[in-house]
Structure formats: structure tokens, C-alpha cells
Recover the amino acids of this structure.
């Protein structure tokens, strides 16, 4: 039996008895490969330059492992809970949480990449080969070509001398291990804190900062003026017809509590869009079943957290009465209980029930949202 080049091919029995060097030679001959140059990167073994190169590469891999370990430590134990600027020490470390995650992970990946590049440059043979290729008449590679190709790969690994470079192997193993551990822990990190631990309070997934903490408590609609410690409440006459304003919860008990005032405007699920419809538009409103009394006259309040992936729905189009999310272009109809009419969102925005406090004349929330705000999660029933 012979190939198109009239080369005598070995039988299956002969092929099984060949060692790697013989398979490499046979594969090159069958594939029409001519090795113009196949230099040994280190013809003289054990030189100082070779050892120095090995130590340098091992150092980069070790650095990758150390940075990967630092990433895990920062992700799990670094102070991540918000601390106000008034608590200078805690606030300083809190501000460094996200930068530390980025720096440690970036250094780990960069160091590992540098180690691989240096190893390829210093220890992988840089042969020069000329080869004529065909696709075996469209049939792909047969068993003979697969075995000889595998032999070529094994030979390249052997010539790279990785098997006898324990420092590099240990460093690379450490780096890969830490990066792999970080990859495995990253999706699990959210389970370290039980999201339902405080499910009955305003800190749970089912509630927001608009939840009354005690019976009869009044939670007012508060403007944000740029100063988180300034309290400016909203009266109906403060908004023109066809306008929208972002508001936050305020309790009288928090008036002199700078930390609580700051948290109220920083908490992710607190922002609410207060919309005052034009009279001619208010007549066209279609209310959601069970939420017929959630508005106060022409005033409607919807969460600012998009039901798609939680972006801020910060745009309101007066002419069409549509609420827009700039992240993925979801649109919600303010005249139909903020139900989605365009884009990937599939649920209406949660509506906050509001009314007027007869004693002060300020707008206030009747109670918290009756459904979780924002995107879905496993246990969500709506």
C-alpha cells in the first residue's frame, strides 16, 4: 500500500511498535515536512542563563498565584459594607474594595500571561519547517495521521524540557490553582450572606427602604438636592404637569441622623420616579388590578429599578408618557401601570402607593411596594 507520493506505509502492527521518535519522523515524511531548522534553545545544559530564565518564569507564575490568593482574600474578607465619610477610617477601606478586586485579579492574569510568554520564548524550540498540506481528498485525518500528529505534540513538549523544570511546574500549578479557585468561588460568593436572613425587614429582598419600621410611621417622599444630609420634602405643587422627579424615603426619626440620611439616597432599591401626568393623559390611565388606589390624583410613583437587570430607568418621555431604561432600551407605559411595551423587560415596574399627609401637606408612601423591585430571582413569585 502506498500514498499519493508513492511512500510505503507501515501496517497497523508496525505502527503500534513504533516509538515516539519514529512516529515523529514518519509523520514529517508523510506530511511532506522539511525541517529547515530545529535548534535546541539550550544546547549547553545547566548554564547560569538557563537557570536564571527558569527562576524568572517560576517567579512570574508564583506572583500570579500570590495575586490570585490576594484576590480571594479581598473578595471574602475585605470590608465591603458601606461606611459614610464621617467614619474616615472605615470609609477609606470600604472605598478600596472594588479597586482591590480589580488590581489583584488583573495582576494575577497579567503575571500568568507573562510567565507563559516567557516560557514559550525561552524553552519552546523555534523550528523552521516547510510543509505541503492536503485534506486527504476531503476525508479528513486518518488514524495514521492522528497518531503521528500526537507524537509531534508530545515531542514538542519533551523538547521544551518542562518535565524536568520543577520550579516552573510548581509556580504554574500554584498560579493556575489560585486562578481556578477564584473562578470557582466567584459565582458562590453571593451565597456567603443569606439574602433572606432579614426578609421580613426593609433589608430583605422582598422589601425596600420604603417599608415602615413601626406601625403608624410616616415615610415621606424626599428630594435629593446634592447634599445627602439636607431634607427637602415634596408637595404636590412642586411638580409641573408632565414632569418627573426622583425621590427617596425619609422618616422624621432620621432627620438628625447623618448616616441614615446618607444611606437613604445611596441604597440601590430606594429611588422612585414620581410622575405627574398631564390632565388629558391622566384620563387615559389603565390601572393594575389590586392597585387602583396607589396613585394620588395625577401623581404616580414607580420604582426606578428596571425589572430586566436592575439598571436605573432614568428617562421619562413626556409626549408619549413612556419610561425608558437606557441600558437595554426597555420602555414602560406610564399610562398602563408601567407595563413593558418595548425591549427585553417582561414585568411592569413596581408601583409605590402614595398619598398626601393631611397634617403636613407633603406626599408620603402608604406602605412599601407589594412586590420585590428589580430583576427576578429564584424565589420570586411575581
Amino acid at each position: 500500500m502506498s500514498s499519493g507520493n508513492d511512500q510505503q506505509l507501515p501496517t497497523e502492527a508496525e505502527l503500534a511498535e513504533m516509538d515516539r521518535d519514529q512516529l515523529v519522523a514518519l509523520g514529517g515524511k508523510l506530511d511532506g515536512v522539511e525541517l529547515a531548522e530545529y535548534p535546541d534553545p539550550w544546547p549547553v545544559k545547566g548554564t547560569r542563563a538557563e537557570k536564571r530564565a527558569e527562576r524568572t518564569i517560576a517567579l512570574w507564575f508564583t506572583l500570579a498565584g500570590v495575586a490570585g490568593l490576594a484576590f480571594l482574600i479581598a473578595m471574602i474578607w475585605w470590608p465591603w459594607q458601606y461606611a459614610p465619610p464621617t467614619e474616615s477610617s472605615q470609609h477609606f477601606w470600604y472605598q478600596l474594595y472594588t479597586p482591590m478586586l480589580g488590581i489583584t485579579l488583573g495582576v494575577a492574569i497579567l503575571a500568568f500571561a507573562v510567565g507563559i510568554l516567557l516560557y514559550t520564548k525561552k524553552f519552546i524550540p523555534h523550528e523552521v519547517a516547510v510543509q505541503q498540506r492536503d485534506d486527504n481528498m476531503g476525508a479528513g485525518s486518518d488514524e495514521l495521521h492522528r497518531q503521528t500528529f500526537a507524537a509531534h505534540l508530545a515531542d514538542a513538549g519533551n523538547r521544551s524540557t518542562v518535565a524536568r523544570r520543577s520550579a516552573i511546574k510548581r509556580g504554574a500549578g500554584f498560579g493556575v490553582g489560585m486562578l481556578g479557585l477564584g473562578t470557582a468561588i466567584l459565582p458562590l460568593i453571593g451565597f456567603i450572606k443569606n439574602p433572606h436572613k432579614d426578609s421580613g425587614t426593609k433589608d430583605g429582598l422582598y422589601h425596600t427602604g420604603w417599608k415602615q419600621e413601626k406601625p403608624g410611621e410616616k415615610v415621606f417622599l424626599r428630594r435629593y438636592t446634592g447634599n445627602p444630609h439636607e431634607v427637602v420634602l415634596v408637595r404636590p405643587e412642586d411638580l409641573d404637569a408632565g414632569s418627573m422627579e426622583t425621590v427617596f424615603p425619609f422618616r422624621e426619626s432620621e432627620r438628625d441622623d447623618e448616616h441614615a440620611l446618607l444611606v437613604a439616597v445611596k441604597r440601590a432599591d430606594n429611588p422612585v420616579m414620581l410622575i405627574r401626568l398631564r390632565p388629558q393623559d391622566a384620563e387615559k390611565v389603565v390601572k393594575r388590578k389590586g392597585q387602583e388606589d396607589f396613585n394620588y390624583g395625577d401623581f404616580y410613583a414607580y420604582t426606578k429599578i428596571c425589572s430586566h437587570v436592575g439598571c436605573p430607568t432614568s428617562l421619562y418621555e413626556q409626549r408619549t408618557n413612556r419610561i425608558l431604561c437606557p441600558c437595554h432600551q426597555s420602555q414602560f407605559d406610564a399610562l398602563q401601570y408601567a407595563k413593558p411595551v418595548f425591549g427585553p423587560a417582561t414585568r411592569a415596574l413596581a408601583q409605590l402607593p402614595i398619598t398626601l399627609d393631611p397634617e403636613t401637606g407633603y406626599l408620603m408612601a402608604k406602605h412599601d411596594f407589594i412586590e420585590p423591585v428589580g430583576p427576578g430571582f429564584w424565589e420570586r413569585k411575581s
About this structure: The two ends are 71 Å apart (CA to CA). The chain has two domains: 12-191, 219-365.
